[in-house]
Amino acid sequence: MKQNNRRSKNSRPKVLGISRNIFFLGWVSFLTDVSSEMIFTILPLFLMNVLGVGTAIIGLIEGVGESAATLMKIVSGWLSDRLGRRKGLTTLGYTLSTIAKPFLYFAGIWGWGSVMAVKFADRVGKGIRTSPRDALVADSTTPEEMGRGFGFHRAMDTFGAVIGLIGAALIVFFLQKGAVLLSGSTFQWLVIIGVVPAVMAVLVLILFVREVGASRLRREAPTSPAPPTRGRLDSRFMLFLGIIVIFTLGNSTDAFLILRAQNIGFSVVDILMLLILFNFIYAATALPSGMLSDRLGRKVVIVAGWGVYALTYLGFALASAPRHVIVLFALYGLYYGAAEGVTRAFVADIVPEERRGTAYGLYHGAVGLSLLPASVIAGVLWQAVNPAAPFFFGAVMAGAAMLGLAILIRE
User: How many CA atoms lie within 13 Å of 267's alpha carbon, on the beta-carbon side?
Assistant: First the structure.
C-alpha cells in the first residue's frame, strides 16, 4: 500500500517541481503573511507607544493568544485524522483570522474589549488551520522530498512577510517619517491595507487547493475497533515533544526582539527594516535547508539551527550598539530558515501517515502551551532584572534543548 501511495504522489501534477497543492498552499501563506506582518508585527509598538501598556502586559497578550490556539491545534489535528479531510478545517481557520483583523482599527484599550479579543480570535483561527494545513503539506509530497516541500512552504510564507514589512515600512515612512514612536492613525492605515491580502489568501485556498483524499485511518475506522499498532505515536515522538517544550520556554514572543531594538535606539521604520532583513534571510535559507535535510538528515540541521539561535540570543543580551542588532537579526533569520520547516518535516518522518494531523496538533500544542509561560517569564525578567535577562535565559534553554535532541533522539 505504501508503494502505491508513493507512486500516486509522484504522479500528481507539479508546478515548478513542487506538487500543485504545496505550490498553492505556499501562495496562501504568502498572502496571509503579507497581511499579518503589516498588522501584527508592530502591534507591540502600538500597545506601548499608543495605549501605554507595559512589557508584562504585552507578554501576557502575546502568550494568551498563542496558548488559546493550543487547544484548537490539538483538536483540529485529531479531527482532521478522524474525518480524513484537511482542507475544510484549514479554510475555517484562515477565514476566522481574516474576519478578526479589521476590528483592530477600532482598538482603544488592551483588554478583552479590544486588542486582546482580536489577538485571541486571530490566534484561534491560526490554531484551527495550522495542524490540518501541515498535515496536508505532508500528505501532498513524498518522504524523499518532505524537506523540500516544507522548505518551499516556509519560504513562501516568509517572502510574504518580507513584502508585508516593506509595505508597512513605506506606509510608516510616508505618514510619520523617522519618528521613534508609532502613532495611532498610522496603525489604523496598516490595518485597512493589511486586510486585503488576507481576503485574497482565503480565495486562493478555496479555489485552487485540493483535498488529498481520505487518510488511511478513516478507511480503517469502520472495520477496526481500535487504531492499528503501527498508527500509534511512540515514545520517541513524545520525547521529542518534551525537548521542544524546553526549547520553547526560552523562545518567548518576538515582540521582545522588537522592544530590544527600540531600547537600543532604532526608530519604527528602522525596526521594520530589521524585520525585512530577518525575513529575507529566513525565506532565502528555508528551501535550501529543507533540501539539505533530505540528504543529510533532519536532526543535524535542527541542532545546527538551534545552535545559531543560542548564539543569537546571547548576542541580544550583550548587544550595546545598532550594528550588533543588525547582525543579530540576520542570524535570527538564519536560525528560522534552518530549523522551522525542517522541524515540521521531522515530525512527519517519525509518526505514521494516518496520525499526522494528531501529531502536528500535539507538536503545535506543546509549543503553544509553552509560549504563555515563556512570554510572561521574559516580560518579568525584562522589568525585574534588565532588558538583557530574557535573552540570557533563552540562550541557556536552547543549549539544553540542543543537547537533548543530539543525545536522546535517534534519526
Answer: 11
Domain that holds residue 343: 16-210+230-408
Task: Look at residue 225 and tell me if it is in a domain.
Answer: no
Specify the 3-state DSSP secondary structure of 213: coil
Distance, CA of 81 to CA of 90 (rounded, Å):
13
pLDDT tens digit sequence for 49-100? 888 887 778 778 877 777 777 888 999 999 998 888 899 999 999 999 999 9
Pick from 114, 33, 43: nearest CA to 268: 43
More confident residue, 252 or 152: 152
pLDDT band at 11 (very low <50, low <70, confident <90, very high): very low
Q: What span, in angstroms and rounded, lies between the C-alpha atoms of 355 and 359?
A: 6
Comparing 222 with 113, the larger pLDDT belongs to 113
Using an 8 Å Cβ cutoff, are 27 and 163 in contact?
no
Q: Above 50 in pLDDT, residue 334?
A: yes
pLDDT range class, residue 215, cuts 50, 70, 90: very low
Within 13 A of 73's CA, how many CA atoms are on the CB side?
Answer: 23
> Does residue 1 sit within a domain?
no
Distance CA 27, CA 201 (A): 7
Cα–Cα distance, 322 to 327 (Å, whole number): 9
Query: pTM of this prediction?
Result: 0.79
**pLDDT confidence of residue 267:** 82
What pLDDT digit, counting tens, does each position of 345-376 carry? Answer: 999 888 888 888 999 999 988 887 887 788 88
Per the structure block, which three cell numbers stand in for 326? 543588525
Query: For position 37, which CATH number holds?
Result: 1.20.1250.20
Number of compact structural domains in the chain: 1
Question: b or e along 319-344 (b: 16 or more beta carbons within 10 Å of the residue's beta carbon)?
Answer: beeeeebbebbbbbbbbbbbbbbbbb
The per-residue pLDDT for 207 is 94
Q: Is residue 6 part of a domain?
A: no
* Buried b or exposed e, range 44-74, using 16+ CB within 10 angstroms: bbbbbbbbebebbbbbbbbbbbbbbbbebbb
Place of cell 538528515: 297
- Examine residue 4 and state whether it is found in any structural domain, yes or no: no
The 10 Å CB-count burial string (b at 16+, else e) for 179-196 is eeebbeebbebbbebbbe
- SS (HEC) of 104-124: HHHCCCCCCCCHHHHHHHHHH
Identity of residue 111: G
